[in-house]
Amino acid sequence: LLDTAKALRIGIVDRLRYLYIPACLPRVVRNFQPSWANGMFFLVGSEILTFGETELQLFGLGTLVSDFAVAGNVTGIITALVLLIFTTTLINLYVFIPLNNFFEAPVRRPSKLSQRLGFLRRLAQPHFPHLPHMPFFEYHKAVSGLASKLTVYGSLLRNLVFFALGGIVVVFLVTGGDEFFENIITAYNTIGIETLAYSSLYSFLRVMAAVCFSVAWSVPAALAVARKPELSATVSTVFQVIASIPVTVVYPLVAEWLADQPELRAFIMIIAATQWYVFFQVLAGLRNIPPVELELVDLLQLKTWDKVKTVYLPRATPALITGCITAAGGAWNGLVVAERLVLGDIVAETELPGLGKLLSELTYAGDLVGSIAVLVTMSSIIVLMNRLFWKRLYDAIAPKLKIE
Predict the structure, then answer these.
(1) Domains of the chain from N-terminus onward
(2) Domain ABC transmembrane type-1: where (predicted)?
């Protein structure tokens, strides 16, 4: 396709329109549901911002839930939760599911749940059109090789960004950066290297435990769903709705049960910000298995485990790694809420140290330089993990298993 585009002298705008963007859109759409779920996770924490004595409250469902939790208004919390579930269901029916169907090959029949709830669409739009599949996406396998062709442009862009940021850093150092770095070093000394080391270790263990747990249940669940096309869409819809229910909204209802289990509470919250990335990525990878391979294993009458070992797992592995990368990122973000959740006067925190807990304490204390020091530490760990582990793992496995 790229060679044809060059031979026809197609401009960069048309290449973006007809090649690059269509090749990327299915993967982007695939991440809508878990991204929505992760956004809902931060609903409570992000609408009330506190830094020292300064507090900023934004009007929204998260703020209302926080006020209900402080007042002990269980009815208000349940009402907000029901409203959120209803809204999420509508968004899935009208936005996410149509988009997924639009960008996927028509290999499945509509689910029974989708058919039964179809009247909701007809009520809102009497002549709701059937979204046609774009002919281009019948060739999505051939387009998958475009990513490798973009490395030249990606390298050029990275170099430009690197030099631009380098110039900004140089200007910053010349115009007073020395004082800033002295303050950062002072903050590190005040916090203590040992405290940062232990906090980093415990946070790292929590993140890895959450990712491993997500993989442990997501892979079998995605396999079970993908192997039954008649249930695939229904289960996916139900899981999408469940994933979009923020655990931070549910927590006030179960706060008493988890009061004596701070680590379990933190683990559940990290899982809520992590697991759906793995599940939906693996499920999407399994749905993209070439039909000819599935027909071949059926023809050979392979046993279930042999099918899983020879076809399903190898084809799902690149998507699994991608899901783990995004899940780990979601887990690191979720640490700030999971390790220390603040709802008005209610503070639920872990007994053991953690970077999220430390960052929350420094933020509420109004220590800007200390907060930056913790963020630099957390960012460094994430970058090192991505470069030294995840990227190498993906580069070693994905090319061997890519669907050509």
Answers:
(1) 2-401 (1.10.3720.10)
(2) 200-387
